[in-house]
């Protein structure tokens, strides 16, 4: 019986199915069924039970016995048991062939009795929280073919008894905390081993240089374990390899020539993050290879020799990553042989010359990375043919202008920083509606910032972008190799590498250019933007008033421009802001009060002579303190002030021409006005001189008391008043 997508709260409806042998309730909602185990044990004929992802909460570890005498298959992955493995599993040794407890939040040690299930052929304990050592009783699983112990917290050494499992074909022990040395003894009888997963564990794979393994591996996952420094010579005996991952394994020295003739059926080769030396002219890839990753090594030689080998023919290569090596020369014109490429990364090498027009033959290309080279000239228009393009990184080169056709692509990431670009930012860049990273920093771009940036919907609306590119799964035969793009960005003034979290980034960096004009107010419509850097340009005008509506902003750098006016009060609404730099502008008035804005160092505001308030040491005057009200209030105040000044201007003009017009057109009034003005002038002069004379006599009096009489001074003052009255 198979009942997919069943929604039920109990299993009482099964009471009449006493003879049931096969039951599949996968994905049924059984989170309220606490007695499911006791119910299932009432069916003595039950042979296969599938309860994967049923939201079960317990395996009832307190039970001492479960009556599953006929059970051969027990599939329980994807539940929420969150306790230790119960001992009653050891009672199933009579018939159990397959036990799957994958991804169940199980914890504690693996009970040694679990490995007494002598008939077991398949055991999956992967992706739990199991800890402690791996019991040596694992060697009792004499019939086991598939053993998954990966993605736990197992520690200690791997017991040598593991090498006794003569029928073992698949062994996964990676992503644990297992330590110690793995040597020939651990593989003594594993003649049927086809798939070995030991990645991401602090193990030391130490075997003799002349060791010939008893097995022929199909897939070897040995990333992030210690294999080197010498290249493992035992690989030469493996004639059936289809997948080889020895990345980050400490291998150094020259790669042996036999490596490239290892097998004609290999599909994936990952030797990245080692210290391997090899001339790429000596590499000839089989046409079956789909992934070739040699990044972060010491491969050298002209790239064109590798791409244009005489024996070359159309192949299946989809991912080529040769970044961070010593490759040299110009890019070849042989791209027609590599039309299956999806991801191409040749960044951080010594490549020179122009990007050839023939690169447009890579019509399936999704990411093109040529950063940190010495490539020059134009970006060829043939790239328009790459209609699936998602990422372009050509930073740190010697290019010319940003092409107008750039808007015809479907880019999610456009990184062109530090590449000597000149000219304007084309308006067509706004057609990239899926763009999430726009990095044009440190170039010589001039002109204004396009106000159409608001059309980039991926920065304006949540969930308006396709994240499949960032989490793309790459298939090598039946295995999925996750190839995560990584990009170097400068989100908060410091260069950082973004990998898995790249899908969370929304960034505009136009810093260190020659951009002029004002910051377009439309930029405040990019509500999902997290990082904004417009520093070191020639921008003028005000900071957009509605910048506070960009609630997701984490970093804003507008420093070293010529911005003026007040800091918008709405900026106090940016609660996620962790970096703000407004230094060296012409901003004025009081810094708005908020928890965020006052938490930044005063250095983030210096260079604005008219700016005041905390955290600056300069206090604000009463007039300045009255400014920076709420955004709505500011608009209303501006309106009232404008009406006041307009009325005052009209009144002044009316009064001015009413008086001056009369004087200009009436001669009698004009003469009378100027005669009156002359008399006023004379009166002011005489009064001033008399007062000064009186003050002088008072000074002499104070210096010589006997010769001066206050009564005499009072008399003289009265005479002066009389004189003024008679004279004026």
Automatic annotation (TrEMBL):
Q: Where are the transmembrane segments?
A: 644-665
Q: Where in the cell is it found?
A: Cell membrane
- According to its record, how does it sit in the membrane? Single-pass type I membrane protein
Superkingdom of this protein's organism? Eukaryota
Q: Which Pfam families match?
A: LRR_1, LRR_14
- InterPro entries to which the protein is assigned, alphabetical: Leu-rich_rpt, Leu-rich_rpt_typical-subtyp, LRR_dom_sf, LRR_R13L4/SHOC2-like, RLP23-like
Q: Which UniProt keywords apply?
A: Cell membrane, Glycoprotein, Leucine-rich repeat, Membrane, Receptor, Repeat, Signal, Transmembrane, Transmembrane helix
Looking up SMART domains in the UniProt record yields: LRR_TYP
Q: Where is the signal peptide?
A: none
Single GO cellular component term: plasma membrane
Q: Which residues form the Disease resistance R13L4/SHOC-2-like LRR domain?
A: 37-250
Family listed: Belongs to the RLP family.
Q: Mind telling me what this protein is named?
A: Disease resistance R13L4/SHOC-2-like LRR domain-containing protein
Q: Which species is listed as the source? A: Castanea mollissima (Chinese chestnut)
Lineage here is: Eukaryota, Viridiplantae, Streptophyta, Embryophyta, Tracheophyta
